[in-house]
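1st attempt posting a full record on here, be nice pls
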Amino acid sequence: MRRTRRLFLLAIAVILGAVGSAYFRQRESQTRQQTPLPPPIRKGLASASEDWVYRRDDGKCPIIEVRAKDQEATQGPDTNILLTGVQMMLFKDCGKVYDYVRSDRAVFNKNQGTLFSEGEVEITLAVPTSEEELAKPGRLVTIQSSGVIVETVSGVARTESFTRFAFDMGEGTAKGANYDPRTREIELFSDVVLNWRGKDKDQKPMRVEAGHLVHKEADSQVFLSPWSRLKRQNLTLDGGDAVITLEDGNIRLVEASDARGTDEYPDRKLTFAAAALTMNMTPKSEVEKIAGRGGAQLQMASAAGETAVTTPLIELDFTVRNGDSVLRTATAQGASKLESRPAARGSGPRPPNRVLESDWIVAKMRDNGEEMESVETAAAGTLQFLPNHPAQPYRKLNGERIWITYGDRNQIKAFRAVNVTTETRKPRPAGAKADPPPAVTSSRDLAAEFDPDTGALIRLEQWSDFRYREGEQEATASHAVLDSRTNLITLSRPARAWDPAGWVTADQIILNQITGDFTAEGNVTSSRLPDRKAASTNAMLSQDEPVKATARRMVSTDRNRRIVYEGKALLSQSANNLSAEKVWIDRIANTLRARGQVVSQFLDRKADRRTGRPAVTIVHADELDYDGRERLAHYRGSARMIREGMDVKAAELRAWLNEAGKNSDSSLNRAFADGRVEIFQAEGGRTRLGTAPHAEYYAADEKVILSGGNAVLQDSLKGAARGKQLTYFTRNDNLLIEGAPTQPVISRVKRN
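the predicted structure (as tokens):
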């Protein structure tokens, strides 16, 4: 019994040993196969995991997806998830496009709906989910910054840190940025620098700088404030607030306030400014037009000189050549002024400055953009030539329309104007006490030519109702030409000139601006007062009445003190007149000469006793020389004097005239005739014929003296008489006969 008990206990021990060995072997096997337990969660964390993913949608379309290599969730009511290796996608258009955010480390707060990273963050906007769309070239915008917070609901991303961004058209930097996918707006807070390259690889980039920038993608506009700067190659534009309008990613329009800019090349410089400025660009972002409003200014400088424009509104049109924008036209509107200051040539003085003022000015440039080709006004304008040297005159022109053509180096070549007035003020001559009077003209049309080297006026042509005034001298004509090299003004078709002393009309009048001399040609008619300052009274020309004249040609010199009439000249003064082929009047020497078919006529101041009317004395001759100091008229060549009841013929005749204004009944004082003298008288049916080598007639006594050796008087009533000298008085019919010692007096008495 006792032995059996020991066997039983041994059997139990064997069984327990076998079971225990199997248990431990099984447990060891299970331990080897079991996954190790994670380390214990750090204090303060609610959870931790790897390859973390967070998704949210609205039941149809995805809204957000966040992936991280690791995540750790903090404890507390406002749980923050600490992520590493972060990738976030904010979906739009029901998942077709998403904004992609990547960062090494970030904090995700589901309750607040934010993702924040203090480190580097890269955001790529509008990434297509389609592989086909992703392969297309596009304008993916990439933003790199730090300290970025992203709102997971709205997708708004914001940072106050330095930011870099890039897209297919360029890249840039700023301090601080904000992106709102709902409005598709990017805001750059300060210190904005943007290099805009465009699509074309050969396109020259534009650098954009601003204190603040907002890009409204939906409107294709970029807003710059409170200051802005745009620079493209040689063009720089500075301003206040500005708006850039885009088209297919290229800059097409810039609108800036308080703008000022330069377009500078080695051989030319363009400067412009305006309170409000717009700049239109080509599809390659090349400048094609600039418009400025409000206090607009334009300055152009080159080797040819400087040009400045001030205007309320200006438009600049450019031509693109080899990628450069070259100014082609400039248009100024409203109270505008264009001033040109040409450069000097050689050692000579600078040409006059030119100032053009009008409400509408259009300037066209040559192909090189350095020099002006033409300027015109579409409204009334004023053009001034301001002297740069004491010898240069001042000129001013007012016209309803003005067209200016330029030659080389911005020198005026020619201009035209309509409904125009001009004013010219010449420098004071050396030694003169006063400036010469201005020369003023007007006409409906005007054309001018200028010296290409000096810019001086060469020729000025005016037509259609031309008028001229210079001091006391005035003129009108259908057509006028001023030759500045000779200072001659040619008036024609027809022409009229006058001053206080008289006037002249002709088919053509040539005036000398310096001397006041003039020449009239064709159908000349004139009226002129004698010189009241003459040394003595000219009996042939009264000092109280104008001398009227007609001729084919007239020349006046020494301020009308020497006058020549030529071609069927006829001078008249009251009832007195003189005609000849050519007449010279010299008021300085107090002489008058006439040549060719000379005819003079003088009227007595008192009625003739026989006719009851003033006697007329008419003298014909080939030549006449009159000396006013002696009041002697000397007629030569077939001279003939016809007086009331008397006809005198001789080779030459000298007539002394009574002084004008003296108490005398007759203009003729006495007359001497020489060379085959014949004197014929007729009165009341009675005739007398006297012949002699020499004869004298005294008007006051009505006395005739025949002398010279063989004097003969034939009287139809009393017969004939012959002697050395015969004297007879027509008034009382007395006859005195004087014979020579060797030649007795012969008389024959006619009996009835």
